[in-house]
Design brief:
253 residues; alpha+beta; Serine Threonine Protein Phosphatase 5, Tetratricopeptide repeat; SH3 type barrels; 3 domains; two-stranded antiparallel ribbon; 58% helix
């Protein structure tokens, strides 16, 4: 278990480092300036060029989503708001703009809830991004080690007891945080979700263009990716419907 926690910490630190490297640069500031002038096409080009260097952040995704929203590209706007939300799950501005964008989508599907324990677990691990979970794991580990040091070095029996119990409790807490952080890190690396980019496209009952249409879906709809055959994805809609869409019609979050 300790080895697994260490491996997770390395992954979380890597994600944190990548995010920290994504500080505002001259290119980012130039893109922001173009956005402020209302030159959204130039801003999009510049933001996208930054992404190609693997230099990304919640702010970059958010600004790119705003630029696409301004150009009425609803699919790309929702895509990048969702990416920003992965990096900053509790960001109020991202959540607000995402809801505004979703309100403009054409699909009105009733969401089918998952098993309540799965919903509960997802709601918890999505509370923070992977880097925050990594810091919480480190803090709980350090505090647990401090408790054991107190147990070894304290003069009084009462203090030793407090250190031992506190150390055990904090180590157990770090294990729980490990599972939460690992779940979020895996989700950020591969959310298995995508956004429809086509204005209107048929959801098929098989992975080919000749298959029967199940339903029409529209730009901006978020889907869950279930399987892949060739250039087709099997997807699940929020109402539980399943079908196939060409990869070219989707962008993974």
């Amino acid at each position: 278990m300790v080895l697994k926690i260490v491996k997770t910490l390395f992954l979380l630190i890597l994600i944190t480092t990548t995010t920290l490297l994504a500080n505002p640069t001259a290119d980012f500031e130039a893109a922001n300036a173009a956005y402020k002038k209302g030159d959204y096409a130039t801003a999009i080009t510049q933001y996208e060029s930054i992404l190609k260097t693997n230099n990304y952040s919640e702010g970059l995704y958010y600004n790119l989503g705003n630029a696409y929203f301004k150009t009425n590209n609803l699919g790309k706007a929702i895509l990048y708001y969702e990416k920003a939300l992965l990096a900053a799950p509790r960001d109020a501005d991202v959540l607000y703009n995402l809801e505004i964008a979703k309100a403009k989508t054409k699909d009105d599907l009733s969401r089918i809830g998952k098993f309540f324990l799965a919903e509960w677990w997802q709601s918890i691990h999505k509370s923070f991004n992977a880097s925050i979970w990594g810091m919480l794991i480190l803090l709980s580990l350090w505090a647990g080690i401090a408790g054991f040091i107190l147990w070894l070095l304290a003069a009084s029996r009462e203090r030793k007891k407090q250190g031992f119990i506190g150390g055990i409790a904090l180590i157990l807490l770090s294990i729980l945080l490990y599972f939460l952080g690992n779940s979020q890190a895996n989700f950020e690396q591969n959310s298995r979700t995508a956004v429809v980019l086509e204005n209107t496209i048929e959801l098929k009952n098989g992975p080919d263009a000749q298959s029967t249409a199940v339903i029409d879906v529209h730009e901006g709809l978020k889907v869950e990716l279930l399987d892949q055959i060739g250039d087709w994805y099997k997807v699940k809609l929020m109402n539980g419907d399943e079908g196939w869409l060409p990869m070219s019609s989707l962008a993974e979050i």
